[in-house]
Amino acid sequence: MIFQENIPLAPRTTFRVGGPARSYVAINSVALLEEALQSAKANNWPILILAGGSNLIISDQGFNGLVIKIEIGGVDIVANRLTAGAGVAMSELVDRTITEGLAGLEWAGGLPGSFGGAIRGNAGAFGGEIKDNVETVTSLDQHTGQKITRTNTECHFAYRHSIFKEVDEIIIQATLRLQAGGESELRQLADDHIRYRQEHHPMELPNAGSIFKNTPVEKISPEVLAQFQGIVKTDPFPVVPTAGIISAAGLKGLTVGRAQLSPKHTNYIVNLGGATATEIIGLIGKIQAAVRDRYGLDLEIEPQIVSFEV
């Protein structure tokens, strides 16, 4: 197996920030993944798994180890079950399921990133979550090479969370159970979601998606909650949209260097061109501090922050 050295990571993320990978390899099969893991173990390299690159903030120094880009593909649909490789783009799965007249992923219209990444973070939008349709997930233990297949319950899905954020395993494929639906209606729903993202999210500039998780109402004091009662929504349980909290704090448009809190959507930080990871993380800290001081709330970061040394 040939590893590339000092490969820039910024072009491989949607934020367009981050330094180089010490070593880098793209794999499209489980056999190659096993080989890459064996090499990493033999060389004592730390590992970073890169999928769609849509939920990452990589250090300006890069990553001092092996970056494995997951490109395991394949989509198999039998009756109402879909099995796909972790590297398949969510946009492809949305399109394929709608064409087959299968409901369950239309909420993900316009969602960036890969299938594996969506499962790891239990991606969700417009009232839906990937966990709603997951039947089984198969992963590979980074240390032993053992294949592990878990049921939905065993994945310990929670809000923007799964067991795969807690264990050293790499998702390689998953199976979804979907429902019959009308192609035209499903296409309309997905298109509506895509249009909404284009109109309300700063898709014209590099970003990593939502910077903070929405805030569950149970974590907000009654006095503070009263100020936001009008914007509480169920997604998938009662939350106050963090964009509303940040906007009310008067932070819209706040910048650090070339990183900006988007005036278009205040739960997005955008790269105005030439932003650094340090500037983005600095801006995140300023937002958190301002919201904590004003409302006593601790905003939880959604993207993974990758340091140079693990």
Put the structure in a nutshell.
With 310 residues, this protein is α+β, with helices and mostly antiparallel strands. The protein has helices spanning 30-43, 90-99, 115-120, 183-200, 222-228, 242-248, 277-295, and strands at 4-8, 20-27, 47-50, 56-58, 63-70, 75-78, 81-85, 102-103, 124-125, 128-129, 134-141, 147-151, 169-177, 179-180, 215-216, 233-234, 238-240, 255-256, 259-261, 269-271, 304-306. It has 3 domains: 4-70, Uridine Diphospho-n-acetylenolpyruvylglucosamine Reductase, domain 2, CATH 3.30.43.10; 75-186, Uridine Diphospho-n-acetylenolpyruvylglucosamine Reductase, domain 3; 204-306, Uridine Diphospho-n-acetylenolpyruvylglucosamine Reductase, domain 1.
Write a structural description.
The protein is an alpha+beta fold. It folds into 3 domains: 4-70, 2-Layer Sandwich (Uridine Diphospho-n-acetylenolpyruvylglucosamine Reductase, domain 2), CATH 3.30.43.10; 75-186, 2-Layer Sandwich (Uridine Diphospho-n-acetylenolpyruvylglucosamine Reductase, domain 3), CATH 3.30.465.10; 204-306, UDP-N-acetylenolpyruvoylglucosamine reductase, C-terminal domain (Uridine Diphospho-n-acetylenolpyruvylglucosamine Reductase, domain 1, Alpha-Beta Complex). 26% of the residues lie in helices and 27% in strands. The strands form 7 sheets. It has a 5-stranded antiparallel sheet. Strands 1-2-5-3 form a 4-stranded mixed sheet, covered by helices on one side. A hairpin with a 2-residue loop joins strand 18 (255-256) and strand 19. It starts with a strand and ends with a strand. The mean pLDDT is 95.
